[in-house]
Structure formats: structure tokens, C-alpha cells
Specification:
This protein is an all-alpha fold. It is built from 19 helices and no strands. Helix 5 runs antiparallel to helix 7, helix 11 packs antiparallel against helix 12 and helix 12 runs parallel beside helix 14.
Length: 412
């Protein structure tokens, strides 16, 4: 029997898993303005929702580093999709039957448990599948996260226009169908068994190596860069740039997702011809440039172009680092992916939260008010740009780290 043919259904289930993770991460931000206007949530509370989502995923990363191998890939994959589906469904129910903020938080926490398991589990499953280029295969997998983001943003935004923002809660209920299908698929598809864990696969064997430290930092910086922009893009477009919600969502987070998906898909198809470390460096620099364009452009549409450029720049940083780590630390197994995901989720938590905190703090400064008047720019726009500018330092730091480690490897 053709092994590649046998595992095609497994690969499709993994793709759906990453679409599920994209729904968990990107659905709530579409409703941030609704939460703020209808429920009275502050910018800091919205940032706390994002922070909590990824802190829960981070805790799952810690727990699952050893637990997944003991429980089994199939049982964990099914449980992950059940948690994700339940959380997405409850997002449309709980805020209307209890305290708004608490209801959103509970729903996001439940969904985050599922997303955390998916994040740790799906990458090593794909890494075990037969493929000519592991890095290309990994990049293509992560591209489905991007296309899921595009679908979530575009379809949800269009639906809001059709049914009205007052009926927003029907949208999460509809998206809960996707993880339900994923749970069914993982009940039947063949799943390769990981190699028996030896000394090589234990975290203590690679945890203190220079390369792991480098990979962990790049994962953290990549996550800071990606989520800070994607989570705040819709709010930034509406309140910061003054465009309407439909255009804000389609030109903000949707275009961010499109360009990130294009970058990952291109590498998935042609990645075998490129040097991964060089591609990672260039992507980090492009991401930095996208942030600068978003923050400093005086023209709103150019700022939205900056959001899209950031998406292309950040496209390879997360999956590329996972592939490079898998190559440089053979036998790392689920523990390696879980620990790197931990640092990624730490960045996912800190980035959007820090952006919101800086924006809130800056908006109360007298200097911003006078700048707003002299530049004839809204305070929300200036404040959020200040928050994004703080994050801009991380992709360039990642580029420096990649060059440093690559230089050391070349000398060796």
C-alpha cells in the first residue's frame, strides 16, 4: 500500500485542525468593537481576553509536553476538537446569559484548551508523515491557519452586514461546526506512531543548548509580531484609521491573513529550493518594515498595506523555526514542539496585551492629546500606533538572532 496515499486523509484532518485553531484565535477580535460599544469593555479588558487565551494555551503546552505521548495522539486530537468546538459555541451563548466579560472569558478559556492541544499535537503528526521536504510540508500546514483566518474574517464580516451586529452571536454558533467535523475525522484517520522515546528525546538533552535558546526566542518574537498585528488590525482599521467595519475587517486582518497565507503557501511549494535560515532572516526584516509602514504612514490606506506586508513577513517565522528546530535537534519529538509552542504562546499572550496596555497608557498622556490636535489625527489612532511601535522591535531582534546563530554554525 502506498504510504503517502494512506496518510492523505490524515493530512487533510491536520489541515482542518489548524483551521479550527484559527477560528479560536481570530473569531473574537472581529467582535472587539461590538464588545466595547455594546458591553462597555475597555481596551485593557479586550487585551486581557487575548492575554488569557494564550496563557491557557501556554499552560496546555507545559502539561502536554509529556502527557500527549502517554495518552495517545488520537484521543488527544479528538478531545482538542471537542474543547475548541464547545468554547466557540459558548462564545455566542454565555455573554448573553451572564456577566458579559466573564462569559467571554469562560468561553475563550474552554476554546483555548482545545487550541493549545491542537498546536502541540498537529505539527508533530505532520512531521511524522512521509514527505520530501519537512520544512515545506510544515509551512503548508501553517498556511491553512492563514486561509482559515481569511475565511473567518471575510465570512463573519459579511454575515454581520447581512444579519446586523445585534445578532453577532449566531456567527460563533455556526463556526462550531468545523471542530465538530474535525473530531469525527480524527476518530477514523490513520495516525503514525512516534518513535519510542529515548534519552535523545528528553527535554534535558536539548533544553540548554544554544540552538534551543535561539529557537525559543525566535518563536517568542514571531508570536509577538504575528498576534499583535492580527488581533488589533480590525480595531486599528475601524477606530484608528476611521474606515467602516466591513472595509476595516477585509483590509485589516483579512489582508494580513491573505499575505501570511501566500508566504507560507509559496514556501510550502518552493521551499526545498531555498535556504531556511536565510528565508527566516528576510521574513523578519520584511515584518519589521511592515510595522514601520503601519505606524508611520500618514495615509490610512498605506497603513493597511503595512498590515498586509507584516502578514507576509511573519509568514515563515513560526513554521520555519519549528522545522529548523526539528532538523537541528533530531529526536526532540513532541516535547520539542510543545516547549517551542510554549514560548510561542507566551509571545501570543504578551504581544496583544502589551499593545493594549501601552495604547491605554499613552491615550491618557497630555502629549498625545496635543499631538492629536496638531496632526489632526484621532487619539485612538496615535495611541494604538504607539502600542504597535513597541512590538516592532521584536521582528528585527529575531533577524539579528537568526544571523548570529547562523554565523556561529557557519564557523563550526
Amino acid at each position: 500500500m502506498n504510504t503517502k496515499q494512506t496518510y492523505k486523509s490524515t493530512l487533510r484532518a491536520c489541515y482542518l485542525g489548524y483551521i479550527t485553531q484559527s477560528i479560536v484565535v481570530n473569531l473574537a477580535p472581529i467582535f472587539f468593537v461590538i464588545f466595547k460599544d455594546s458591553y462597555g469593555l475597555s481596551t485593557s479588558q479586550i487585551g486581557t481576553i487575548v492575554f488569557t487565551l494564550f496563557i491557557v494555551q501556554l499552560l496546555i503546552d507545559i502539561i502536554s509536553a509529556g502527557a500527549i505521548d502517554r495518552i495517545g495522539y488520537r484521543a488527544c486530537a479528538i478531545a482538542a476538537h471537542i474543547f475548541a468546538g464547545a468554547g466557540i459555541l459558548l462564545l455566542g451563548i454565555l455573554p448573553r446569559v451572564m456577566d458579559n466579560f466573564a462569559g467571554i472569558m469562560i468561553a475563550e478559556i474552554i476554546a483555548a484548551v482545545g487550541a493549545g492541544i491542537i498546536e502541540v499535537l498537529i505539527s508533530p503528526i505532520v512531521d511524522l508523515l512521509p514527505a520530501e521536504s519537512k520544512s515545506s510540508s510544515m509551512s503548508l500546514l501553517h498556511a491553512f491557519y492563514c486561509w482559515g483566518q481569511v475565511a473567518v474574517v471575510a465570512l463573519s464580516t459579511i454575515t454581520l452586514v447581512v444579519i446586523g451586529t445585534e445578532y453577532w452571536y449566531y456567527i460563533p454558533m455556526a463556526w462550531a461546526i468545523v471542530p465538530t467535523v474535525g473530531a469525527v475525522l480524527f476518530s477514523f484517520v490513520p495516525i503514525p506512531k512516534p518513535a519510542a522515546g529515548g534519552e535523545e528525546s528528553k527535554p534535558k538533552k536539548f533544553l540548554h543548548t544554544k540552538f534551543f535558546v535561539f529557537a525559543a526566542f525566535v518563536m517568542f518574537a514571531a508570536a509577538m509580531s504575528e498576534l499583535s498585528m492580527s488581533q488589533w488590525a480590525s480595531y486599528f482599521a475601524e477606530r484608528g484609521l476611521g474606515v467602516n467595519k466591513v472595509m476595516g475587517d477585509l483590509l485589516g486582518p483579512c489582508m494580513f491573513g491573505v499575505f501570511m497565507g501566500v508566504g507560507r503557501t509559496l514556501y510550502g511549494i518552493h521551499g526545498g529550493k531555498l535556504k531556511l535560515s536565510a528565508a527566516l532572516t528576510w521574513c523578519s526584516v520584511i515584518c519589521f518594515g511592515g510595522y514601520l509602514l503601519t505606524v508611520f504612514s500618514p495615509i490610512p490606506m498605506l497603513s493597511l498595506v503595512g498590515c498586509a506586508v507584516t502578514g507576509f513577513g511573519v509568514s515563515l517565522m513560526w513554521p520555519g523555526t519549528l522545522s529548523l528546530a526539528s532538523e537541528k535537534i533530531p529526536g526532540g519529538g513532541t516535547s520539542l514542539f510543545a516547549l517551542l509552542a510554549l514560548f510561542g504562546d507566551l509571545g501570543c499572550s504578551v504581544g496583544p496585551w502589551l499593545t493594549g496596555v501601552v495604547s491605554d497608557g499613552v491615550s491618557d498622556m497630555p502629549l498625545i492629546e496635543s499631538l492629536s490636535k496638531s496632526l489632526e489625527v484621532g487619539i485612538d489612532q496615535l495611541a494604538l500606533k504607539a502600542g504597535l511601535l513597541v512590538i516592532a522591535v521584536f521582528p528585527i531582534m529575531a533577524a539579528v538572532a537568526i544571523r548570529l546563530i547562523n554565523g556561529k554554525n557557519s564557523k563550526k
